[in-house]
Amino acid sequence: MNVSKTGVEFRRFLRDQRGATAVEYGMMLVIFSMVVTGILSVLGTDLTAMFEKLDSYLKP
Predict the structure, then answer these.
(1) Which residues fall within 8 angstroms of residue 47, CB to CB, at 6 or more apart?
(2) How far apart are CA 30 and CA 43, in angstroms?
(3) Torsion over CA of 44, 47, 48 and 51, rounded to 10 degrees?
(4) Which of 17, 20, 34, 46 is the most exposed place for a label (fewest CB within 10 A)?
(5) In sequence order, which residues have a C-beta less than 8 Å from that of residue 40 and are 6 or more positions away?
């Protein structure tokens, strides 16, 4: 493989957009997971207390 063909292949690789959407969705999923984890860790004890109170109301 000569140098000019390698350069053409490299430029083609840089312009290739296939797979970019999967990476973007993966990044969005990671960010969403981090936000949900943060919210649950902050509100975790409050949620536990709320469900325990609800459970006590529902018991016969």
Answers:
(1) 40
(2) 20
(3) -160
(4) 17
(5) 47
> Amino acid letter at 44?
G
At residue 46, what is the residue type? D
Compute the residue count for the chain. 60
Tokens of 7: 């350069």
Position of tokens 């970019």?
A: 20
Q: Which two tokens stand for residue 26?
A: 């993966």
Q: Does pTM top 0.70 for this prediction? A: no
| Ordered DSSP codes for 1-60 | --HHHHHHHHHHHHH--TTHHHHHHHHHHHHHHHHHHHHHHHHHHHHHHHHHHHHHHH--
